[in-house]
Amino acid sequence: MSDLPTPLERARSLSRDRALTEQADQHAITLESILAVLRSGRLADAAARREATEIASSALIRARSVHEQQESVLEPVAEAFSRLRTELRPLIRSGPLQVQFAEPPARGRALPGPVAREARAISRTAVLSLMDRADAARARVGWDCDGRNLLMEVRDDGGIAVTAHDDSLRPIVERVAALDGTMDVETTPGWGTTLRIEIPLDPPSAALTVEGAEELTDREKQVLRLVATGISNQRIGDQLGITANTVKYHVANLLRKYGARTRAELASIAHSHDAHSPSAQTR
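^ that's the sequence the OP posted. Answer follows.
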């Protein structure tokens, strides 16, 4: 009898490792935020204690809640970015680094759950790295989406030259590589550093296309387009004037017709369908 782990056991182990890494990142943010408040010279002692207590209480509530989403869940890109801002707010509010956020397009393609979580972790790590270096006063964090990739940019005004081989960026490099993404580091002495990261939204092995699938009804096409935005069945039903159960029925039919397993794969199909439509080719 083989002692080697089965594919399912390996998948579960990987999922646990990711969850632990996410929790460690969250704890790091919380501790850094509390320390920044307590060290701040802009707050009186009593105000600093109140602020630190509020941060700790909020973190405790989050720790007791179920945050991890299942792999099949999509997260609208604007909502994913909003969560990042919420996670970083306590740290930025009391820390020495001024951070500007460049919002992604509100109707950009929804992100698969794992991509959204890793993108937030990458952005958090980048901001923490800047605070550790202490040579930058301002930074800009921005996300965008070209339909196939999540485009991330972190720019600072620090004077220290940085390369992708620096230890401070190693966690980011590893996360990006795990997602089959790419990262470019551009440093101009005296002007700062820019990280440009590109993460694919579709798994490399995905070979789902619109060709060969059963013909869709008009309603199924409507549901498919809305599934790609990452909204819930209830919200899809509200927009189309049908019940959530009817939406669920159409989603099940779409999964069957395309041989897809998740809503994330359906989102990929929807984008492929739009990219090959006559209207898209004439733009």
